[in-house]
Design a protein that fits this description.
With 468 residues, this protein is of the alpha+beta class. The chain has two domains: 204 residues, NADH Oxidase (3-Layer(aba) Sandwich), CATH 3.40.109.10; 221 residues, NADH Oxidase, CATH 3.40.109.10. It has 18 helices and eleven strands. The strands form two sheets. Strands 1, 2, 3, 4, 5 and 11 form a six-stranded mixed β-sheet that branches. A five-stranded mixed β-sheet has the order 6-7-8-10-9, sandwiched between helices.
């Protein structure tokens, strides 16, 4: 399956055949898990672990929790929920609402073949001076999207069920049941299995003009088709797995090489075809080509590099296990002189933000159903991964820059400069362009962590044993 078909046909499936359907072959389970390894990792360190669950009792517990929480959330107001399914015919909405408000819709972990629980560390297991908070959950979303797309390619259904762990008390109970330490944030239950049938209606997606800005918040993005005469475009195709494995970080762009507008638009369009919790379209993008803004991002990057690489040579060396000590020295020197310049050299930067608390449901009983920020940042991370995959398929290179947004002081300066409202949180900056020439010790790829180091079977700490 090519990457475009895979991105545009991926859906959140909520009905599986269970014992009446096919089982996912062991080899394909391993292929799905393996895809996660190729997602972006902050400083080469995976901020995520995955709990792999086949046990029926555990799936039953997740389903029970999901039904209870969904009933609390969606049972409050038909008016609120009805607005979330605006794209369905009016005569179907009451039936769907009833099915959802009783919580029955969310019991599908029972029928799934297996469930993956992503666990994200928010700085507790990371030795950086930069407090990567929401960014860690977004990076987890990138790994999840790789698994989701791989499952779709193989013909299996997958769906994100946020309900069972969308509540502090139940999340604590499940943590005790599975041994997940409290320093790791469990982010929903991703269910995989033989889907009953393809979803025939939806999903709802906003237009690019509704979710993207040009240079500054509020300055609506206008697609090139409305600005220039249209011309014939040939979109290259590429296999899903090849694309996933081909994405890497580019530290040197070809300065002055322009990215065609339609390619940026294709990336943005793929970004909105990611999981969209509650159909709220909770992300916004700012496309930046302004040299002053790019200079600010580059200056922040240079400052962060000095703090990170010069503060501890041993730490930098530990992050670069694929390089010799002499190469690490060269790496640090090159980063100090050239490596920080890539925000200036790339043609465009896509700054992605997400709405942390854009939800109508009130807090209930001291818990936070519907209001946990990781849902929104993880789903936005899935969209960012779609954009990176699209860029790779289009022959472009990308680099994720977090230095100007993950640290509070630099973040404040950027937010002020771009007019971003306080209710929206900058998540990542995706630098896009054509590759330039960089030394071998820069382009040499870091080894990916083996699956057994990032996946636990049924209980935290039990390293994954390959099924095939």
């Amino acid at each position: 399956m090519n990457i475009w078909e895979c991105i545009y046909t991926r859906r959140s499936e909520r009905r599986f055949k269970g014992d009446k359907g096919r089982k996912i072959p062991a080899k394909e389970v391993e292929e799905i898990l393996d895809a996660a390894r190729y997602a972006f990792q902050i400083e080469g360190i995976p901020q995520w672990r995955f709990l792999l669950i086949f046990d029926q009792d555990t799936k039953n517990l997740l389903a029970e929790f999901a039904q209870e929480v969904a009933h609390m959330i969606f049972g409050i107001s038909y008016e609120i929920f009805g607005g979330h399914i605006w794209y369905l015919p009016e005569d179907r909405r009451p039936t769907i609402a009833e099915y959802t408000q009783t919580g029955e819709l969310w019991k599908y972990p029972i029928e799934a073949d297996f469930v993956v629980i992503p666990c994200i560390t928010k700085g507790a297991w990371f030795d950086s001076r930069v407090p990567y908070m929401e960014q860690s959950t977004a990076v987890g979303g990138m790994a999840i999207q790789n698994m989701w797309l791989t499952a779709n390619k193989l013909g299996w259904g997958a769906g994100c069920n946020a309900m069972p762990l969308n509540d502090l008390r139940r999340r604590e109970l499940f943590s005790t049941f599975t041994g997940v330490p409290m320093s790791w944030q469990m982010c929903a239950a991703y269910c995989f299995g033989d889907k009953v049938s393809a979803r025939s209606v939806g999903p709802s997606r906003a237009s690019l003009e509704g979710i993207a800005f040009n240079e500054h918040w509020g300055n609506r993005f206008v697609r090139s088709g409305f600005r220039t005469e249209s011309s014939e475009i040939v979109i290259p195709t590429k296999d899903v797995t090849e694309t996933i494995k081909g994405v890497h970080n580019c530290y040197k762009f070809a300065a002055g090489a322009e990215v065609e507008d339609w390619k940026l638009e294709k990336m943005l369009h793929c970004g909105i075809w990611s999981p969209n919790p509650e159909n709220l379209n909770h992300w916004r993008h700012i496309v930046i080509r302004d040299e002053k803004t790019k200079q600010y991002v580059a200056d922040c990057t240079k400052e962060a590099y000095v703090l990170e690489h010069k503060s501890s040579f041993e730490k930098t060396k530990n992050h670069l296990p694929h390089l010799s000590e002499d190469q690490v020295i060269e790496y640090v020197e090159w980063m100090m002189e050239e490596g920080w310049k890539y925000p200036l050299e790339c043609d465009a930067i896509i700054l992605t933000t997400f709405a942390k608390d854009w939800v109508e449901y009130a807090h209930i009983g001291g818990t936070l159903p519907g209001g946990i920020d990781y849902i929104w940042s993880t789903a936005t991370g899935c969209g960012i991964q779609n954009m990176r995959l699209a860029a790779q398929a289009l022959g472009l290179e990308t680099q994720i820059n977090l230095y100007s947004i993950a640290e509070f002081r630099r973040n404040e300066g950027l937010v002020s400069q771009l007019g971003i409202p306080g209710s929206w949180v900058p998540l990542t900056m995706l630098c896009v362009g054509e590759a330039g020439d960089a030394p071998d010790f820069i382009t040499k790829k870091r080894p990916k962590p083996p699956v057994k180091d990032v996946v636990f079977d049924e209980f935290w700490g039990i390293r994954h044993t390959p099924l095939a």
